[in-house]
Amino acid sequence: MKLTIEDKRLLEELCEQQGISHAKVLKLLETVQEYEFKDRRIGVYDALREILKSKTSPEQAQSS
Fold first, then answer.
1. By the 8 A CB rule, do 44 and 30 touch?
2. pLDDT in tens, 3-49
3. What is the DSSP letter of 35?
4. What are the φ/ψ torsions at residue 25 (nearest 5 degrees)?
5. Where exactly are the structural domains of the chain?
């Protein structure tokens, strides 16, 4: 997912304010985007659920 520098900064700021991982939010957005143009979006909720259940390591948060 391509975000501008300003968008990334804003996302990081909002995630920090809410106490959530910006890496996890980015992964959720990327997953939704992957399913966006499919004829059938079977599995999107399972994919999102798995991301929400996963633990995000500090390395993942820094790589975004």
1. no
2. 899 999 999 999 999 999 999 999 999 999 999 888 888 999 999 99
3. H
4. -65, -45
5. 5-63
